Input
Amino acid sequence: MDPPNLPLLLLLTLASTIDAQDLFPKPYCNSTDNLTADSTYQNTLTTLLSSISTTNSCGSAIEIRRVCPDKKGAVLFRENCTIQYSSTSIFRTVKTDPDYALFYFQDFTSPETYNAALQTLLGRLRGEAAGGGSLRKYATGNTSVGFNTIYAMTQCTLDLTNQQCIDCLMTVIGRLGQCCAGKMGVRIMAPSCQFQYETNNRFFDLVVEPLPPPPAPVADALPPPPGTFALV
Ligand SMILES: *[C@@H]1O[C@H](CO)[C@@H](O)[C@H](O)[C@H]1NC(C)=O
Ligand SMILES: *[C@@H]1O[C@H](CO)[C@@H](O)[C@H](O)[C@H]1NC(C)=O
Ligand SMILES: *[C@@H]1O[C@H](CO)[C@@H](O)[C@H](O)[C@H]1NC(C)=O
Ligand SMILES: *[C@@H]1O[C@H](CO)[C@@H](O)[C@H](O)[C@H]1NC(C)=O
Output
């Protein structure tokens, strides 16, 4: 079977944060896309992944070859980045599957009020991330609900256009209703975009790091550089 299209649901009862390290890395091997043993694809892929330099908080790109040794396509969700490769072109393509959904077990006590504030915040941050240009499609913000504060983050891969980023985030944010409406904190990651929110926990840094250099162009059917999800 393909990696599931349905969000993988994890109930986080003990974790103090959605970024709990034992939830990552989360691999999805594309089982419809087999690699033959003698394939030059395999060698090229290994060489390519070895050559990709990643930040320390992302980890090595080649690790995914050990997890999905015989697949032409795979996605590896890490805490601070997402790595994907495919035999078909994924550049400038909105990929919302597979996805990985994490959420707190606790429900918010006044779901209607909470959801209204949350949707407004996510809608604003969706536009901000999409409008971020080709160097930073990332936005964070907060909003108050009674005595509580919701902190949220939205992010797209840098290869997406403004509209593609909006489409991607609309799709993954729309999945809230299927997995985890009204939860105190949720993170849904997809290959092309992700969002996260938490209640009374500013999970992102306020200090904005310098913009990274623009990604180097890569061969057509190869993935965009990893690290595009690295949280600043
Ligand atoms: C898996 O690979 C097939 C063949 O390349 C592709 O059509 C499909 O979209 C891939 N599945 C995912 C979830 O990327
Ligand atoms: C790929 O390999 C899996 C498991 O080895 C097998 O079940 C599947 O039929 C293969 N798919 C193709 C398209 O050959
Ligand atoms: C991810 O980034 C956060 C914030 O910078 C950091 O605390 C955490 O250790 C990083 N995770 C990994 C696996 O490096
Ligand atoms: C909430 O966001 C505003 C900007 O909209 C920012 O000025 C403020 O510092 C943030 N508050 C907290 C507690 O992070």
Notes: The helical segments are 40-51, 63-67, 111-130, 162-174, 176-179. The radius of gyration is 18 Å. The pocket of 2-acetamido-2-deoxy-beta-D-glucopyranose (ligand 4) is lined by residues 141-142, 202 (CB under 6 Å). The mean pLDDT is 80.
